[in-house]
Amino acid sequence: MDTDAQHVERDRSSRPSASEETSDTERPEGRSRFALAGRAADWLPGGRITLSVLVLLVFLLLVSRFVMQPFQIPSGSMEPGLRIGDRVLVNKLAYRFGSGPRRGDVVVFDGAGFFGSADYVKRVVGVGGDHVVCCDREGRLEVNDRPVDESAFLHRGDRPSDAPFDVVVPDGSLFVLGDHRSRSSDSRDRLGSPGGGMVPVENVIGRADWIAWPAGHWTRLTRPGAYARVPAPGGARG
């Protein structure tokens, strides 16, 4: 028996047919996709380069709209951490899945109806239920009867506040302050106005997570440990 001949015949039969070896781009659906992209590129001035730029722009627009948005610092109210002209990246998903702003977060919010018509950037000092007081006998900010050491981020030479205040933050609201207290317009300035200077959580656009520009100031913004020992607001007065 010619076993070698039988082996060769079996090898030949096991090879895929020409139709099976056809690549995805040669299949009808593959050809249609490439043809559609080709027709779009032919229609646009600049061809495929223009099409690629448009796709990139749409992608960046979607990212900016739903994920991460750049924001330029307009004033010195958050110095020394954030300087005029710095561009921060605002994480718009930070509070979209059940978690809310926490004490110490730097947030960007829509000030319409409360602070004005612009977007603002401030630090969260009190959340719903918190009792916020300034100042104690040593001149420190107090949250839920616990003094907060703000020296790590408070502007040098500033006190926690030149004007005293004693507030309880309503549920669903935030009490916010700038780090450069002597140059910041924040919750303190609107305590006697409608809303009491509180920022509704629903007005928060997102959390500032990174300083992206200038390159030499590239920094990740982290929550300071000064608020870590502040107790829950269950024991707050008011």
Question: Could you list some keywords that capture this structure?
Answer:
four-stranded antiparallel beta sheet, 2 domains, globular, 238 residues, disordered N terminus, Umud Fragment, subunit A, 20% helix, single chain
Description:
The protein has 238 residues and is an alpha+beta fold. The strands form two sheets. Strands 1, 2, 3, 4, 9, 10, 11 and 12 form an eight-stranded antiparallel beta sheet that branches. It folds into two domains: 3-66, no CATH class; 69-229, Umud Fragment, subunit A (Ribbon). The longest helix is centred in the first third of the chain and has 19 residues, at 48-66. It has three helices and twelve strands; from the N terminus they run αααββββββββββββ.
Quick summary:
The chain has 238 residues and is of the alpha+beta class. It has helices at 3-14, 28-43, 48-66; strands spanning 68-72, 87-91, 106-110, 119-126, 131-134, 141-143, 146-148, 165-168, 173-177, 199-200, 204-213, 219-220. It has two domains: 3-66, no CATH class; 69-229, Ribbon (Umud Fragment, subunit A).
